[in-house]
Amino acid sequence: MKIALKFFSLGLLMFFLAGPLNAQTPDNIIMTESGEMNADKPLDDIVEKRLTFEKRVLPYDHIREADIFWEKRIWRVIDVREKMNLAFAYPERPFFTILMEAAEAGEITVYSTEDDKFSIPLTPDEVASMGASVDTIATVDPETYEETFQVVRNEVDPTDVKRYRLKEIWFFDEETSTMQVRILGIAPLIEEFDDNGNFRYERPMFWVYYPEAREVLARERVFNIANDSSPMSYEDLFEMRFFSSYIYKESNVFDRRLEDYLSGTDLLMESERIRQEIFNFEHDLWSY
Question: Keywords assigned by UniProt (predicted)?
Answer without folding.
Answer: Signal
